[in-house]
Specification:
The protein contains 6 helices and 9 strands, in the order βαβαβββααβββαβα. By secondary structure, it is of the alpha+beta class. Its EC number is 3.6.1.25.
Length: 230
């Protein structure tokens, strides 16, 4: 199990290309940041017809990853109960590679070391179906601070989509995510989160449109699903 800690910053869906380019240019020049290219991510989210996973504050995702010079890859991810405050998201996460476009729930259940979450997936897994997807291009940078704290910076631009009666309903998705990858001494003093906040302030100076966002991509999908299906 991993504990995911990331600071999420949202941008307007109609962000002009010039403003996005300004952010990319700033990150390309940011001291300590190393550009890691871009990749195309398609994420299909699953739940039961009565949304048992959402009620339990869990998210089940199958992700397709495509990037130049690398084999295409499928990943399945289970995220469990967490909290979001001032854009900082902290939650449990289990992620496993799968060989093709299909969930391997038995492997996820075996990997999940939270009994209540494993039991939820064991009891409800055979009933899950695709509910919505996110489809976006992600640009990545790895930032290393002077003390060795490491942060992945992701700029995502694409859409959330729900299919209903043959019609694809979408809304734009434009976000920056700052994910804490590593911090010295298990981050007992909270230095990692302070560095996330300092990076956010640096980006805000370039793009004041950025704002802390407590809504995850999964929550955006469920919200659009509710708007479309009622």
């Amino acid at each position: 199990m991993a504990i995911e800690r990331e600071l999420k910053l949202a941008l307007p869906g109609d962000l002009p290309t010039a403003r996005a380019d300004a952010l990319i240019s700033h990150l390309d020049r940011l001291p300590g940041a190393d550009a890691r290219g871009q990749r195309h991510l398609v994420n299909r989210y699953f739940d039961t017809p009565d949304l048992a996973l959402a009620r339990a504050k869990a998210a089940l995702r199958l992700r397709f990853v495509a990037r130049d010079g690398h084999p295409e890859q499928w990943l399945q991810t289970l995220k469990s109960v967490g909290e979001a405050r001032d854009g900082l998201h902290v939650r449990h996460e289990w992620e496993l590679a799968v060989p093709d476009e299909a969930l391997d729930l038995a492997a996820l259940i075996a990997a999940c070391d939270m009994p209540t979450t494993a039991a939820l997936l064991r009891n409800e897994g055979e009933n899950v179906v695709a509910q919505f997807e996110t489809n976006f291009v992600r640009r990545l940078w790895r930032y290393v601070a002077g003390d060795g704290t490491t942060v992945e910076i992701a700029f995502d631009r694409g859409e959330v989509a729900v299919e209903a009666e043959g019609v694809r309903h979408t809304e734009p998705l434009v976000e920056v995510e700052l994910e804490l990858l590593d911090a010295p001494d298990d981050d007992r003093q909270g230095q990692g989160e302070r560095i996330l906040q300092a990076l956010a302030q640096d980006l805000l100076a370039v793009l004041p449109e950025l704002h802390a966002d407590n809504v995850s991509k999964a929550q955006r999908g469920y919200r659009l699903r509710q708007q479309v299906l009622g």
